[in-house]
Write a structure and sequence with these properties.
By secondary structure, the chain is an alpha+beta fold. Helices cover 49% and strands 12% of the residues. It is built from 17 helices and twelve strands. The chain is globular.
Length: 399
């Protein structure tokens, strides 16, 4: 069968395509991707956990191509074990739960401030959940952690969105490609200047700690610090933005789940966990075969791209019974939203921690908060990689 992740219908609603792939051809060649796409849960787990046969080394180059802001070095996300441990050991210290919980009061304040902002720009008790809250919230949190200028948070969000749009570069015109290049250049220039400043005058922030820290007696080079900061900005922005936007976009599909979590706040974490399974903010990851392999009866040559469809894994009925049902009582253990194996996302706790604070704040401040659109009317970003609503007008009543 034919499968094209560049197809606009697929990017707007990938789930019927995933169902067909799992039923008919769970490992399928994609001409547009020049690689094999993998749809079944067990096969995806094999690809993500077997780093000997499936390498991450070309993930970032495939995603961004010539628009990589720091191409001189491989980002942590594209390093295979054991090489990625050097950078990951350094970076993950800032993402330990005990460190992140120190930020709880600041994150609550950011949530409050953004609710005030959304109300201030609202018209007729409506605002755009995607841009007036969801887009600004996680970038404000990661800006706090990195020690970057929060007044530029909207610029950061636009730069990240445009940079990740490079995944669709094969079908864009020159004007759109110029926007992507501007975003890449802007991120590079901003962090290059900032690293120079923090090298001269260190502060109490993550970038300063990256500059000063040593792993096995070695310090990160300037370009490695730039690379890591950009990677963390992207990861810290996109996932939680799409998690919050996607959560509200599905309100009319399962209002009873929102009502239950609003009434019993102990259910908020489970509301988010099921949302992460049901509508993952990141839909795919890339690996390359290090040798010829056989996956689900399909022979894949050496040095071939393999695209794992995380959104499909999370709705595989072999793993999650009745996968289209949004169930707060579901056991979501094993979902693939944050990857699996050695590259399991170290920011997963942060994303869920800050999103829970945000959802509780929205419940506190609004008696009613619901989208004006039905789920089938929501327009999603043009991407096979990330999934979140472009805009999401919501109606509110203050608590």
């Amino acid at each position: 069968m034919q499968f094209d992740p560049m197809n606009a219908d697929f990017q707007q609603n990938p789930y019927p395509f995933y169902d067909e792939l799992r039923a008919k051809q769970p490992v399928v060649w994609s001409e547009s991707m020049q690689g094999f796409c993998v749809a079944a849960y067990d096969d995806i787990m094999t690809v993500l956990t077997d780093s000997d046969n499936y390498s991450s080394s070309k993930f970032w180059p495939i995603l961004l191509g010539e628009y990589d802001p720091a191409p001189e070095v491989q980002p942590m996300i594209s390093l295979d074990p054991p090489d990625h441990l050097r950078t990951r050991t350094l970076a993950q210290k800032a993402f330990l739960p005990r460190e992140l919980k120190k930020l709880e009061i600041k994150i609550q304040q950011i949530s409050d401030d953004l609710v005030d902002h959304a109300i201030s720009v609202s018209k007729d008790n409506t605002f755009d959940m995607a841009w007036d809250f969801a887009a600004l919230f996680p970038v404000s949190v990661i800006a706090e952690m990195l020690g970057i200028d929060k007044s530029l948070r909207l610029d950061f969000k636009h730069w990240v969105d445009n940079l990740l749009a490079a995944s669709n570069r094969a079908i864009y015109d020159d004007a759109r490609l110029a926007e992507i290049k501007h975003a890449s250049d802007s991120l590079r220039a901003y962090f290059s200047k900032l690293v120079d400043e923090r090298t001269e005058n260190p502060g109490d922030d993550m970038i300063s700690s990256f500059i000063q820290a040593e792993v096995n007696g070695e310090r990160l080079s300037k370009i490695e610090v730039i690379n890591l900061a950009i990677l963390l900005l992207i990861g810290g922005t996109e996932t939680t933005t799409n998690l919050l936007g996607g959560l509200l976009a599905g309100y009319h599909d399962h209002p009873e789940a929102f009502a239950a979590a609003r009434a019993d706040r102990s259910l908020v974490p489970q509301l988010l966990e099921e949302q992460l399974r049901w509508q993952p903010p990141v839909q795919s990851l890339f690996r390359h075969t290090t040798r010829e392999v056989v996956l689900n009866g399909v022979t894949i040559p050496e040095n071939t791209m393999v695209m794992t469809l995380l959104g499909s894994a999370n709705r595989d009925p072999e793993k999650f019974p009745d996968p289209t049902v949004f169930d707060l009582k579901r056991d979501v253990r094993g979902y693939c939203t944050f990857g699996q194996g050695p590259h399991f996302c170290m920011g997963s706790f942060l994303s869920k921690f800050e999103a829970a604070i945000a959802v509780n704040k929205l419940f506190d401040r609004f008696k009613v908060l619901e989208p004006l659109q039905q789920p089938e009317e929501v327009r999603w970003i043009d991407s096979y990689f990330a999934r979140g609503p472009i805009t999401l007008p919501v109606r509110y009543e203050l608590a």
